[in-house]
Specification:
The structure holds three protein chains of three kinds. Chain A is α+β, with helices and mostly antiparallel strands. Chain A is built from twelve helices and 14 strands. Chain A folds into four domains: 34 residues, no CATH class; 60 residues, Arc Repressor Mutant, subunit A (Orthogonal Bundle), CATH 1.10.10; 72 residues, Roll (SH3 type barrels), CATH 2.30.30.90; 74 residues, SH3 type barrels, CATH 2.30.30. By secondary structure, chain B is mainly alpha-helical. Helices cover 75% and strands 2% of the residues of chain B. Chain C is globular and about 50 Å long. Chain C contains eleven helices and seven strands. Chain C has two domains: 187 residues, P-loop containing nucleotide triphosphate hydrolases (Rossmann fold); 61 residues, no CATH class. In chain C, strands 2-3-1-4-5-7 form a six-stranded mixed beta sheet, with helices on both faces. The longest helix of chain C has 17 residues. Chain C is α/β, with parallel strands linked by helices. The chains are: A alpha+beta, B mainly alpha, C alpha/beta. Chains in contact: A-B, A-C, B-C. At the B-C interface, helix 1, helix 2, helix 3, strand 1 and helix 6 of B face helix 4, strand 6, helix 6, helix 8 and helix 9 of C. Strand 13 of chain A pairs antiparallel with strand 2 of chain B.
Chain lengths: 338, 484, 268
């Protein structure tokens, strides 16, 4: 008989090794996978994407900035640029580099995959928002053009990614960026969030944690050098100006109702009370949103809270003649007028 | 006619392209609200049409009876006790009601038909090995599956279906949802889980009621943690031999029941823990949504329900006995009777796997029984008994190599097992391993049919097996450190 | 008498045989194909059983039927094939079930689509009815569970509903087999062309979409002049519906229009 103490020690060692190998994100296997994606093709594509991004934003792109973004040395970056121009993807001139037509469409294709993938994750999976970007960074180098088009067809050929960025068409068309920084709003002015920049990840995570989402209505309250105070869907939020740089807003349309006070949500409805649906938060996406609308939760619908489950959540609501149970987290994303 | 054909032909590629490209341009202009606006306008029209055609009763609130019933069933104080009482009643009825028909079928198929079948084979002069494979192997395996499985299923499933038809089960899902939500699962999983206590294959099929892909996969993969009715008899027998016997006779029944319920509860615990883990790792990439419709109560259609669920379930059991258990019976007979050198294949394998079995606090007989009995958990105990007798060369018990048997008295079983070197640890770990091992082959096949994915099927098979091995191993080592 | 051209016979089937075969439907022994659509938990399977005499398990659960069931029945000397589509709330979302149901009705062009609705929750069910009526013009609404509605004192004016929807509406309690003979008769009438449906079509849409819709509709009309419901096609294109995009690309949309014109001419 094997000594039980020794057996347990061997077991502990085996478990530790397995964990070291296969832990998601930090395990050796995950690191190897990431390292593999950092190979030549990925470097070329990342560089093109970066140059495109800077051109789009009208910033000068240099060897240093490329080295910085791709986490390689300046020498390697210079070498990379030489290779790119040899491939006919860019030309170098006095004030930096510029993409050729080929380079431009290559970059757009990568961006298309990246944004489609983010949209796919947002709508069709339960991957949390903070992981969308890093997952798309991997996917953009591995999906073939055919796979990309299949993905687009499957998720209904979307035009925008979940951060509000337009997705280039297969032929490389993309409208110019609209909107301006949140800081440009005057006190009392209304606007819609059209874009939340997902890099750096830490900043993005903070904005998401505040409950901000693309399509949200904001109203500037006041701002100083230290802090920006604004209302988002009527709820007051205070942020450092640095963070608000990652928010792009556009003027509100005429049809849109101006939200001046915090909206009531369905979750606040008491049993037996009735209310009309004003809107469904844009933060509710994908299958959940479609299912709710199919069940008849659309602006104007009358909803009555019928009963709570024995454990307090979910709550059953009378919706267009049917009794439908909704979890509190989802009811909180349906805005109502009592 | 001709005219029209001409028109059709004029449909040009350029024209089609122009439709699609302008659709694209327009989509950029109007933004992403088309779907929402469309549903909104459909519902606006639906509302108008419905309000013209439908006259609702005025005055008294609608659905008076339904409402009263709902407020009782979902009430904070009565909701859960009512649910436990009802389920306990269903289980009690199943266990009590199944005893007599099970014994009847067993005595008919095993005690009466088996010897008769043997004599027929002998009479027509079939060689001994053919008689062995068909009468002792195939027939007995099928007989066991049918007698153990059919009566409980014929009682449990119609009862469950009546509750479903009445509209009670969606309310159970409604009440249980918050527990399952925390595990990243859907409240309806409580129902497929309960169904799994009857039969895991049926439980896997029952997950169809879950319409969210992620939650449905979770429910499918974890269904095996529900102790199915092929495993209940094993649990009860082993618990009474190794735990009930430890207590004074007056408490024996109580301790036995406690041990079995403990193992079943452990299964529910594993269901929730594994659901939680899956939803945060492997199944992150699946879509998730929640909606649960509570249909109005309807008087159940008693006869139709009895008829369809009996026919459906009987068909499943018979199919399963024939397709999966019959070959297993043949294999069991063959490995016990084909000799290599001086020992049968089974004995070779028992000796070979014994060290591994001992490491897990089990033994070689249990390992081989679980490998051969993948098709059906019902034949584990008969196989274990037969192989124990075979490998320890006990005489006077059983009916010879390859002939599975059961003993009427638990004490007789205990004697055989103790002779095979079983201890309390073996009993405990057999109960744990019976809860945590790969699903039976019917369930594996059903999982594949439902998911159409080798990946998820493999995962559903491997997860519980690894858990079983690891947990049995740990329990064995700790038990030995403490008590030996 | 001279040979009648095929388009002009008064009860010729309208289904698209090629597409049906592609969808796995064997029509060799049948004259007409009838699709059965409906919300989950409206008693669709019960209607299916009542029509075909089969005993599929039905339950008080949304979404019991997952695999497609098929059956057949004979009425008025014609042989009908009945195809039970998955129960769905809508035909617009991207779930597999909804795609199966939508593709069958749109591209298989069943001779009749029976839409089973729950009389106690008509408004919710009309969502699906209106969507089905956008893509077919041969439908019968089966107002099921009418007994339950009566028990709850809900009155439904079927004549008014039929007039508004432009298709026959039959009140039924399929569990008691009530209304099934009437349903059969109406299915027969629509299939044979004795009853001409004038299905309700959506007209109001959000004002901000109006310009885009009319612009696109004009283009589609020019290309597919015989298509009966260009507005709907325009809306689906604006929503990025891949199947419709493919149908435009391959010209299959033109096929559909030819068929529907043939039947329209036949019934006139």
């Amino acid at each position: 008989m094997i000594d039980p103490g020794k057996a347990l020690i061997v077991f502990g060692i085996v478990t530790a090794i397995t964990a070291a190998l296969f832990t998601p994100k930090y395990g050796l296997f995950a690191q190897w996978k990431r390292a593999r994606s950092g190979m030549k093709r990925a470097l070329v594509e990342d560089a093109l994407k970066h140059i495109y991004d800077y051109e789009y934003k009208n910033i000068n792109c240099t060897t240093e900035s490329i080295a910085g973004v791709l986490l390689i040395s300046t020498d390697e970056a210079a070498e990379l640029l030489t290779r790119l121009s040899a491939m006919g993807l860019l030309i170098t001139n006095d004030n930096g580099v510029k993409l050729t037509a080929d380079g431009n469409s290559y970059a757009l294709r990568i961006i298309r995959v990246h944004r489609l993938w983010e949209r796919y994750l947002a709508d069709e999976t339960s991957v949390p928002p903070t992981e969308w970007h890093s997952s798309a960074e991997l996917a953009e180098h591995t999906l073939s053009p055919a796979e990309t088009e299949m993905l687009a067809a499957q998720i209904g050929n979307p035009n925008f990614d979940p951060h509000g960025d337009p997705i280039p068409t297969p032929t490389g068309e993309m409208p110019p960026r609209k909107g301006h920084s949140l800081l440009s709003l005057k006190s009392g002015e209304f606007a819609l969030i059209t874009h939340i920049e997902d890099e750096p990840e830490a900043v993005f995570a903070q904005l998401i944690a505040q409950g901000l989402y693309v399509g949200m209505q904001v109203r500037m309250i006041d701002r100083s050098n230290e802090r920006v105070r604004f209302a988002a869907d009527g709820e007051e939020i205070v942020l450092a100006p640095l963070l608000t740089n990652n928010l792009t807003v556009a003027p509100i349309t005429e049809e849109e109702q101006r939200i001046t006070a915090p909206l009531d949500s369905l979750a606040s409805l008491k049993i037996g009370e009735e209310a009309h649906v004003l809107s469904i938060s844009k933060a509710m996406r994908g299958q959940q949103r479609r299912r709710l609308m199919d069940l008849g939760v659309v602006p104007g619908t009358t909803i009555r809270a019928e009963m709570k489950s024995a454990s307090g959540d979910p709550t059953a609501y009378a919706i267009r003649g049917a009794t439908v149970a909704l979890r509190r987290q989802h009811a909180a994303m349906i805005f109502i007028q009592k | 006619m001709k005219n029209r054909l001409k028109k059709e032909q004029r449909t040009t590629t350029a024209g089609k392209e122009s439709i699609l490209s302008s659709a694209n341009t327009l989509r950029w202009e109007i933004g992403e609200h088309v779907h929402d606006s469309l549903i909104e306008s459909i519902y606006a029209d639906a509302n108008q049409i419905a309000s013209r055609a439908v006259t609702l009763p005025d005055g008294k609130p609608r659905f008076d009876f339904d409402k009263k019933l709902d407020s009782l069933i979902t009430s904070r104080w009565f909701g859960f006790p009512l649910m436990f009482l009802l389920l306990a009643f269903v289980f009690w009825l199943t266990v009590e009601g199944a005893n007599i028909p099970s014994a009847l079928i067993a005595s008919l198929l095993v005690d009466t038909m088996h010897p008769w079948l043997r004599s027929v084979f002998v009479l027509i002069g079939s060689p001994w090995w053919l008689t062995g494979v068909l009468a002792d192997g195939v027939w007995l395996a099928m007989a066991w599956v049918v007698s153990v499985m059919l009566p409980p299923m014929a009682i449990f499933f119609p009862l469950f279906t009546l509750l479903e038809d009445f509209g009670y089960l969606p309310r159970v899902a409604f009440n249980m949802d918050s527990l399952f939500r925390r595990a990243g699962a859907h409240g309806k999983q409580s129902l497929s889980m309960t169904m799994g206590f009857g039969c895991n294959a049926a439980g896997v099929v029952a997950t169809r009621i879950i319409d969210s892909p992620r939650e449905r996969l979770i429910a499918i993969i974890t269904n095996n943690f529900s102790l199915c009715n092929g495993r209940w008899p094993t649990q009860i027998l082993i618990a009474s031999i190794f735990f009930g016997a430890l207590a004074p006779p007056a408490l024996a029944g109580f301790i036995t029941a406690g041990a079995v319920v403990g193992v079943a509860t452990l299964g529910i615990f594993f269901t929730l823990v594994v659901s939680w883990g899956l939803s945060r790792t492997l199944l992150k990439g699946e879509a998730s949504s929640f909606s649960l419709e509570l249909p109005p109560y309807r008087p159940p259609q008693l006869w139709q329900t009895l008829y369809t669920s009996l026919i459906d379930r009987t068909a499943i059991v018979l199919w399963r006995a024939i397709v999966f258990a019959a070959p297993a019976g043949a294999v069991i007979w063959l490995v016990s009777n084909i000799h290599v050198g001086t020992m049968s294949i089974a004995e070779h394998f028992i000796n070979f796997s014994n060290p591994f079995g001992m490491l897990l606090g089990l033994n070689g007989v249990i390992i081989i029984a679980y490998i051969i009995a993948i098709p059906a958990n019902e034949i584990v105990i008969p196989t274990v008994l037969m192989m124990t007798v075979l490998s320890t060369k006990l005489s006077g018990i059983g009916n010879g190599a390859g002939v599975m048997f059961e003993l009427n008295e638990a004490t007789a079983v205990a004697d055989v097992l103790r002779a095979g070197g079983w201890t309390v640890l073996t009993g405990l770990n057999l109960m744990l391993f019976s809860l945590l091992h790969n699903p039976c082959s019917t369930t594996i096949y059903t999982i594949y049919k439902e998911t159409k994915s080798v990946k998820w099927t493999a995962l559903a098979t491997v997860i519980p097996t690894i858990m079983g091995i690891v947990i049995c191993f740990l329990v064995a080592q700790i038990y030995r450190l403490l008590f030996v | 008498m001279s040979q009648t051209p095929k388009e002009n016979c008064d009860d010729c089937p309208v289904h698209n045989l090629g597409n049906l075969t592609k969808l796995g439907i064997n029509m060799s022994q049948f004259d007409f194909v009838v699709a059965l659509a409906g919300n989950p938990n409206t008693g669709k399977s019960t209607v299916f059983n009542a029509l075909t005499g089969l005993r599929q398990h039905t339950g008080n659960w949304p979404g019991k039927t997952v695999t497609r069931a098929e059956g057949g029945f004979v009425y008025g000397n014609k042989r009908f094939k009945l195809v039970d589509l998955p129960g769905t709330y809508s035909l617009l979302s991207t779930s597999t079930d909804e795609e199966v149901a939508r593709d069958f009705i749109l591209f298989g062009q069943p001779d009749v689509t029976v839409i089973v609705v729950d009389a106690t929750r008509l408004e919710r069910n009309l969502n699906l009815v209106l969507q089905v009526l956008e893509i077919t013009h041969r439908a019968v609404v089966c107002l099921n569970l009418i007994d339950e509605a009566q028990r709850h004192n809900i009155k439904v004016d079927t004549r008014r509903l039929a007039k508004d929807l432009g298709v026959p509406v039959v009140a039924a309690a399929a569990r008691q087999e009530e209304g099934i003979p009437e349903l059969l008769k109406n299915v027969y009438d629509v299939a044979s062309g004795a009853y001409i449906c004038r299905p309700y079509r959506l007209e109001r849409t959000a004002p901000r979409l109006e310009k885009a819709i009319s612009e696109l509709t004009a283009k589609i009309k020019k290309e597919f002049p015989l298509l009966p419901n260009t507005r709907w096609i325009a809306l689906r294109l604006l929503d990025g519906d891949q199947k419709i995009i493919d149908a435009v690309k391959s010209g299959e949309l033109g096929n559909l229009s030819a068929k529907s014109v043939a039947t329209r001419e036949a019934v006139q």
